[in-house]
Structures are given as C-alpha cells and as structure tokens.
Amino acid sequence: MTVSYDNSKIIFDGIKAAGIKSVSALPETWLGLLLQRAESDPDVQLVQVAKEEEAVGVAAGAYFAGTPHALLMQNHGFLGAINGIVSLAQLYHIPLCMLIALRGHWGEPYPWHTRGGIVTEAVLRALSIPFEYAREPAQVAKQIREAWTFSQSSLSPVALLLTRDLMED
Amino acid sequence: MERARCLEMIYPELTDTLVVTIMGASAQELYNLGHRENFFYLQHAMGLASSIGLGLAMHLPAERVVVLDGDGSVLMNLGTFATLARYRPRNLIHIVFDNGSLLSTGGFDSHTTSGITDIAAIARGAGIEHVAAVDTAVGFGEAFIAALERNDLSVIVAKVAAIGPEHYGMDLQLPENAFRFRRWIQDRKRATEQTS
Questions:
Q1: What is the C-alpha to C-alpha distance for residues A147 and A43, in angstroms, rounded to an integer?
Q2: How high is the pLDDT of residue A47?
C-alpha cells in the first residue's frame, strides 16, 4: 500500500479551491504528499507545529487575522489536541476546519494505530464536533468546501475524516 | 519585582499592539489597567497563548503582537519555542512572567522554582536568538524597549513575585472578547487598505 499521489493532489486542489490560504500541520504518512504540495505552493502558507494542540492556537490567530485556514492532522493528533479544541475553539466560538487522517480503522495493519482509530468517531460525537467521512476522490473537494463553510457559519470545529479508501492506492 | 508593575510600565505602549494574555492573574492585572479592544484574554487552554500569537504574527506581518505568558502555561507547551524559532516572526514579542508558582490554582511550586528549570535557556536552546532574562523592573523595561526597537522575534523571561490581584472578574464574556478582538483587527485592516 502506498499513499495515493493522485488523491493527495485532488485534496490539495480542493483545499485551494475552498479559498483556504493557510494550513497548519504535523507531518504524518498519509498527509506527506499533501504537505509537500503546500510547502512548495507560494499561495499557501504552511505552519508546521511540534504538537497538534499548537495548531489550534495558530488557527485561532489566523481566524482573528481573517486568513482562511485549515488544520491537517492525524487522528491521534486530534486526540492530543482536545483541550485546545474545547477550551479555546469551542469556548470562544472560533471555527476550526480540521482535515483528519483516520488511521487505525478498517483495513489497518498496524496495531499501534488501532485504539485511536476505534475511538475517534465516538470522541467527535462526545465533543459535538460535526464530521463526515471522505472516501471518494470525486466528492472530496466538495466536502472540504462544505466543511469550511460550515465551520465559518457555526463558529465551531468541524472534521473531515480522510479514510484509507481515499488516501491509499 | 511585581508583574503588575511590569504591566503598568508597558501598558502605554500597547495601544495599537495585539496582546494575548494567559489566564488568571496576568489577564486580570492587564484588564485592571483598562481593557482595550486589541487585548485577548485566553482564560483557559493553558499553553496556547504563544501559539495564538504566532498565528496572529504570521498572518498579520504589519501588526505587532505581544504575548503575556507565564511559567506554568509555557511549561505545558514547550514545543512552542521550537515552532516560534522555526518561523521567527519579526513582529512578535513573547514575554514569560516566571513566578515559579501555579498561583491561580493554590500556589504550588512550578518546575522553575529555586532555579531548577531555566525557561530562558530552553528558549535559547530551541533556537530563539534574542532571549532576555530579567529580574528587575529597570531590566524588564530595557528589555522591552530593546525588543520593540529590534523588530525581530524576542523572548523576555521576567522573574516576578508569586502574587496576584485581590479580586477577579471582568465585564466581558469570553466569546464577546473573541468577537470584538477580531472586529478590531478587521476594521484596522480595512482602514489600512483604504488609505493605501
């Protein structure tokens, strides 16, 4: 299994088509090709953080600044960022458009990813974070645009879960 | 040295500067000097004040950003120094008031008590070039003026006494603070665009 070159490009193009100008991220395997594109694109500002919770702060700063911003992270990074999501974004009504690589789910061969994968959906529900699964390359650009739109209208975190079907060939 | 005295010293310089504070005493002491629309008080999410500052500074290169952090908060997000060093926003001043205490939650010693952990050394080790460690009001004032003039990422670690205000409370709801802070920034952006 390899990370999908074509679908990484489709997702990156979808991010740009949604009007997003700035991306924070912590590199992870499925997001690697996407981040390479972000790094070399002069129209997108990439902020690499040391831990995903920092990205919640960076996203709040970008929101205050008026720069459309998306957060790219693995689901384990999402789990590690929860206090920031709850006590900065949700507490202050700051939108977060989160694209989350859903590791440790259907078809996962690596034991270390599995617990995080199994609990991700339940944690999103517990936090009242609206989410969708992205599986189809033909749909993902629309899903990114809608995630962005909904985050801005609801002033809330929203999550688009990037699945194995989409991210691997 | 008292943190409230330090804040009094820099308050006149913060009229058109974006300020992000941490929770508790730091937020309250700044608020008590007189709230301004360009102040954002992060009353929870400990550790993220500097990350908000980074996001502001990187996306608003024409604005100056001052973060008022504390030892307890920054110890929860030490990676922030490495991220700040990597992107080195020239318009960001990161002040860490180090009182060696988790004052707001009962005054337990933090790891910086008795000089065990050196936050300035951590910041330097993370790759931040301009780091000042001060323990007098004069030293703090000089470090702040130098940071203003430097126009480069600056960290000031100020040793202060573990004391805070006697009363807590703001006539400002948390989302209201966020909405108004954002509006102040957007109004200013529009005004700048119109004049340019």
A1: 21
A2: 98
pLDDT score of A87: 98
- ∠ CA B7-B64-B1, rounded to 5°: 20
**What gap in Å lies between CA A73 and CA A30, rounded to an integer?**
10
Q: Is the pTM of this model over 0.95?
A: yes
Q: Which of A51, A55, A83 is facing B45, going by the closest CB pair?
A: A83
**CA pair distance B58, B41, nearest whole angstrom:** 19
A162 Rama class: left (phi>0) / alpha (psi -120 to 50) / beta: beta
- CA-CA-CA-CA dihedral for A98, A51, A53, A148, to nearest 10: -20
Chain B contact set for A49 (CB, 8 A): 51, 79, 83
Regions of chain A with pLDDT less than 50: none
What's the pLDDT at B195?
82
Find chain B residues with C-beta within 8 A of A24's C-beta. Answer: 55
What is the predicted pLDDT for the residue at B105? 75
How many A/B residue pairs have CB atoms within 8 Å? 114
Q: Which of B40, B59, B186 sits opposite A22 (nearest CB)?
A: B59
Contact B182 A63 (CB under 8 A): yes
Give me the half-sphere count of Cα atoms (radius 13 Å) on the Cβ side of residue B22: 27
What residues have CB less than 8 Å from B188, skipping those under 6 apart?
Answer: B16, B63
| Count of residues in chain B | 196
C-alpha span between A155 and B77 (Å, rounded): 25
| Contact yes or no for A128/A102 (Cβ under 8 A) | no
For chain B, list residues with pLDDT below 50. Answer: none
Identify residues of B whose CB sits under 8 angstroms from chain A CBs: 18, 40, 42-45, 47-60, 77, 79-80, 82-83, 86-87, 174-175, 177-179, 181-182, 185-186, 189
H-helix or E-strand spanning residue A71: strand A69-74
Q: How far is B46 from chain A (nearest CA, A)?
A: 8
Q: Which residues of chain A make contact with B181, given a CB cutoff of 8 A?
A: 64
Which residues does chain B have within 8 Å of residue A154's beta carbon, measured at their own beta carbons?
A: none
pLDDT of residue B106: 78
